[in-house]
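Hey, I was hoping to borrow your eyes for a little while. There's a protein on my desk that I can't quite get my head around. The fold is given in discrete form, as structure tokens running alongside the sequence. I'd be grateful if you could look everything over and explain what you see. Here's the protein in full, and shout if anything looks odd to you:
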Amino acid sequence: MNVLRFCAAPLAALALMACASAFAHDPSEKVTVLQDEMLKNVPGKKALMIEVDYKPGQSSIAHKHEGTAMAYVISGEIISQVKGEAAKTFKTGEYWYEPAGSEHMVSKNASATRPARLLVFMVLAPDEKVLIPLEH
């Protein structure tokens, strides 16, 4: 199990290459890589499972994923918005899907007083970036 903390700077170095700068979020947001496995039945792709812990009121920067993502709310409530869609609040036990290349405009803890936890499963090529910050 590999626990990563995020870098705060301009958040530019965001490729998942087994380094601590693999994700670009708030410096106190906690991400745990649960699994990172090559898929034997899908040559050239891997499955990545991560757990994201949001502190109360915490949010991620606007970003996109090169891989396909599926997210499940383990605890708390998460507000999520993909470009072109309305923001939606997902509660414990709810989930959503983001196709590869989706622009994730909002990902944040809906509560200012309680933490939230998110499980994310992704399928991507080993050289694809997990998270790319969107420029404003």
